[in-house]
Amino acid sequence: MNTYSEETVQELIELHSRLNEELISATISEISWERIIMHLEVQIERTRRFVEEYGEDRELQFYLVTDYARSNAYFDTEKTDDGGYVISLNITNPGYCRCLPKGTYKIYICAGNDILATPEIAPELAPCLAERSREFMYSKKNRAYCVDFSIAEDDSGLYPEIRVINTKGAGIKAFTEAPKKEPSANSQKFFNLKRVRNYMTKYYHYESGKADRSFNGEIRNILFMTEQSETLGSNLTSVIDKMKERGLDKEYNILTSARYQVEKSYSMQSWASVIKKVADADMIFLDDHCPIFDWLTLSPRTTLIQLWHAGAGFKSSGYSRWGHTGCPGPVSCHRQYDYGISGSTRVAHFHSEVFGVNREMLLPTGMPRMDEYLSPEYRKSTEKRLREEFPLTVGKEVILFAPTYRGKNRDAAHYPYEMIDFDELYKFCRETDKVVLFKMHPWVSQPVPIEDRFKDRFIDLTAYPNINDLFYITDLLITDYSSNIYEYSLMRRPMLFYAFDKIQYAFSRGFHRDYEEAAPGRICYDFESLMRALREEDYQFEKVEKYVDLHFEHMDSHASDRVIDWFILKHIPDEYVSKLKERQLRNEQLKRLDFSAAME
Known about the structure:
With 600 residues, this protein is an alpha/beta fold. The chain is built from 20 helices and 25 strands.
């Protein structure tokens, strides 16, 4: 079952049980979790007969099978040096862009069409199964998706049983109930929004029904949309500008919608206008999470494409932080994406984990907003302008201090300035003829506390609109967990990471990859070590080139062209089309597998 084609899908329905022949034995020696990814270490013992029939190196397949003899997932496999396997499964997306369905599962091991074994739990692991179980809380922690490991009630061995449950509050009243309160502004807002959703869903079905009936298969209306800001982000505007430059605005109707729906209330007229555009759109481009599509299911006619605004940083978001406050529910906007973009196929899995979609759906166009950034003409003119606007930087080495914010949302966003020893940093700058530009996250409203005596070396540029511009005149970037390293890495200049609160940040926000391994520079966990790295120029600069090689498939100014050519003009390269098709065929095959023979 390793070859997937339209011709073989039908042939792969019949599975034959060879469980009683005991051709192999399998033992699960460990269960671990990597965020939402379940890993099982499986030791395999092959009999002589197995080797004679299948060969020593025959690949094995591992399936999760329900009580009614159907498989809901296949494990990704990695062979170990001792002939065993590490088998892995993303429980928020086993391959078909939704959570593993609730139910009770067994694991079956196959070689082609033959069911060979079901593994046992190692005796020393059996008492620890409760510790390996997980609860992922969502919906303001009022609901939970649970993955529970136990031993099946079977006298013949320690066979694992995996139970998946989706729960909500039990509804048990406390002995003393809380006093009744008047409805808060937030609860009233939620009630009003619920009414709006009901009206707008009906309105959408009415308008999209008309559009569906007139649709002839050609893309005509393209909507560029955000619900996170009242201005369109640079990824969206870059594609629009390129379409106009190529004269495509005469062939397609370009629609736009920009609202800050996360924080602001809008009139019914505004809602109706947005829904009408969504209903008319044959293709929609987003650049962030769009709450409308958490509850509004799009017509199959409409293609939804996510042009995510951030490069591959460290911070967890979406499904990679499932179980944390503010994470999405099992069904969300992300589940409706037809495509997304990334800088490289080698990092597509970071984005696919965030969105809960398959990595084959993330195509390496590069980021449209990088087109201007990588333009030699733009760089030359911008650097000249910045030197004139900030003469303090002329003839001096420039350090850019640009961390992310702390706090769980925009309202609570801040940065602990007390973690910076401004006196010590100023002394260092005077001794080495350097200046520091401070560019705090836009959500941090408190200005950098720069005293008058420091102003010949420190500048607060938080209000400067485009941090990418500042990278042109920056010799060293100091950051922490920000995704700004993505753009800056292309300058091929050193970085330092001031991560004084890494442990707290990991628990509150979370990382979607190993911080120490992925940071393209030296990590400093206190200000003293940061100053030592500055004085000794100890940047671990060799990590930058590795980061660039991993994250960028194209280093040009044509990402907007690729987005237009691949998605709008439907010229996705054959290599990506074939991978998408293979995934679809594997999912189709999974639905057809029948394990009834193993249960007779």
